[in-house]
Amino acid sequence: MEAYFLEWLNLFFRWFHVIAGVAWIGASFYFVWLDNSLENPPQWKKDKGIGGDLWAIHGGGFYEVAKYKLGPEAMPKNLHWFKWEAYTTWLTGMVMLWIIYYVGAESFLIDNSKLELSQWEAIGLGMGFIAIGFAVYEILVKTPLRHKDGAFGLVLFAFLAFSAWVADQLFSDRGAYIHVGALIGSIMAGNVFFGIMPSQRALVEAVQRGEAPDPKYGAFAKLRSTHNNYLTLPLIFIMISNHYPMTYSHEYGWAVLAAIIFITGFARHFFNLRHRGEFKPVILVIAAVMLVALAGVMAHTQKVVAPSENATVISDEQAMNIMAARCATCHAAQPTQPGFEAAGAPAGVELESIDTVVAMKQKLIEVTQTGYMPLGNMTQMTDEERQQIIDWMASK
Hints:
Number of strands: 2
Mean pLDDT: 89
Strand content: under 5%
Strand order of the largest sheet: 1-2
Order of helices and strands: HHEEHHHHHHHHHHHHH
Radius of gyration: 25 Å
Largest sheet: 2 strands, antiparallel
Low-confidence stretches: none
Number of helices: 15
């Protein structure tokens, strides 16, 4: 019953997380597009303090949007704020982190082949990783380096790449990816809570006092919003990466993640320039070439366990004992692996009978050779067992 309850909690918060994330990302994309698409307004609008405007049509109606250079003469009665999308996304994400990776630390977070940890040691390292990483970003964004977009971007990328490497040394492959994602999500939510919202409150308070707002507040809020915009695509990739073990289970999974962070951030730059009227498709071409190159490098550097020549093949009974201990804890009609008890066999694949295993041997050999399975090696299959089961399946 406990596993069933946790599965429903997982479903609810994952659903909630996706809905909130869609709202947050949509608002982020829209306002960055809006800011980059503003045009020079007519003089009568400039006289009112408007710095840019645009016209749009959507849903069967025309919209006229204007952005004040600093602030309006008087505060409007209804002012819409955009913050709860960010906070809700972060909060639901942290709940999911606890439900899946901390409550289920022994299955999803700890990899004893890397570092032997107790559940609470792993949780402490996870929370410390996020907190320290967030603190480093907050220090960086307050230095003069923030005024140099290119240099700051490279430093931030180097920091995230280093963070990916550190996470890979501490956690399971999946746990490493999700903690880098939690770090990026915390940075983004922190940009809203510690940067954008205080700046916007300062603007509102200045208008309420009848004073001209200090331009530095709007500039700082826009800077943090821009950082969030470039971090969005890497974060979305990490959110779906658990479906693609070829990335996180790669021998150099941390480097794969770093490369994808760079490629997706670079691709996002094309759209931001496009919104400003600068059409540079070469950016997307270069990003696509880098992605193809990454796939090629991954294919040639992935550690693959090939069937041995003249190997002493284990018996059917020995093979099924290995399958029972390392594979069928999840791939069974009634899984016993913590976190899977209420979910049924993943993808409907049951590996409890020799006939089923032999019928699927080509696919099973492939996922076992590359280390995709067991998922995150949560059942701690040894290299010897992996070789034995591959040789046995190849003999059938």
